[in-house]
Amino acid sequence: QKEVEQNSGPLSVPEGAIASLNCTYSDRGSQSFFWYRQYSGKSPELIMFIYSNGDKEDGRFTAQLNKASQYVSLLIRDSQPSDSATYLCAVPIGDYKLSFGAGTTVTVRA
Amino acid sequence: DAGVTQSPTHLIKTRGQQVTLRCSPKSGHDTVSWYQQALGQGPQFIFQYYEEEERQRGNFPDRFSGHQFPNYSSELNVNALLLGDSALYLCASSPGGDGNLYEQYFGPGTRLTVT
């Protein structure tokens, strides 16, 4: 079983719609969860982190965490063409290591 | 406030050669992690350095080694390069304190091509 799995893409959404990205993780002991955005040819950029069950909102981004189901998601509201990128879910495994999913590529159609 | 910096940006090496990549962490950060990202994959953890010591290592062979200097900058060395080592190598730094260990900020990366 992979440590972190993301729903396979690519995901194509029209401008103004909601993009929904999902991530599951294997380590029940994980306490914090991170979403990174990576534009083509660039390095990952931290956009959200969440520690507690429930929702966390930051601008047009909402992270949702359900520890019982070992599931974390990212919603992008009012999607813009500038949101077109690969989104990486990252979960700590052990004391210091961040384990990343393979990423979901999002394309926002104008 | 300078972010994480890495050098060089691109590098082309031949199989069997050795390479050294460099990283300077974000100001105020004392922990450096290195990742390898193959095309179409997420970053894979190589190791993390804190207080000039390697404190955790991922599933990478001993050909991959590193160092951290007193100013918190770090180097990644790869010996006996293989074609499969071709990837984007990312350095990430974290602020001090247990509560912030995982808030890692990435540098621009070094693109290594092995021919």
Structure description:
The complex is a heterodimer of chains A (110) and B (115). Chain A has 110 residues and is mostly beta strands. Helices cover 0% and strands 56% of the residues of chain A. Chain A has no helices and eleven strands. Chain A has strands at residues 4-6, 11-14, 19-25, 33-38, 45-50, 54-58, 61-66, 71-76, 85-93, 97-100, 104-109. In chain A, strands 2, 4, 5, 9, 10 and 11 form a six-stranded mixed sheet that branches. The mean pLDDT of chain A is 93. The mean pLDDT of chain B is 93. With 115 residues, chain B is mainly β. Chain B is globular and about 40 Å long. In chain B, strand 4 (29-37) and strand 5 form a beta hairpin. In chain B, 37% of the residues are buried. In chain B, strands 2, 4, 5, 6, 9, 10 and 11 form a seven-stranded mixed sheet that branches. In chain B, strands 1-3-8-7 form a four-stranded antiparallel sheet, with no helix packed on it. Chain B starts with a strand and ends with a strand. Classes of the chains: A mainly beta (110), B mainly beta (115). The interface between A and B is medium-sized, with 23 and 25 residues.
SSE layout:
The complex is a heterodimer of chains A (110) and B (115).
Chain A: E1 4-6, E2 11-14, E3 19-25, E4 33-38, E5 45-50, E6 54-58, E7 61-66, E8 71-76, E9 85-93, E10 97-100, E11 104-109
Parallel strand pairs in A: 2-11
Antiparallel strand pairs in A: 1-3, 3-8, 4-5, 4-9, 6-7, 7-8, 9-10, 9-11
Chain B: E1 5-7, E2 10-13, E3 19-24, E4 29-37, E5 44-50, E6 53-57, E7 64-68, E8 74-78, E9 87-95, E10 105-106, E11 110-114
Parallel strand pairs in B: 2-11
Antiparallel strand pairs in B: 1-3, 3-8, 4-5, 4-9, 5-6, 7-8, 9-10, 9-11
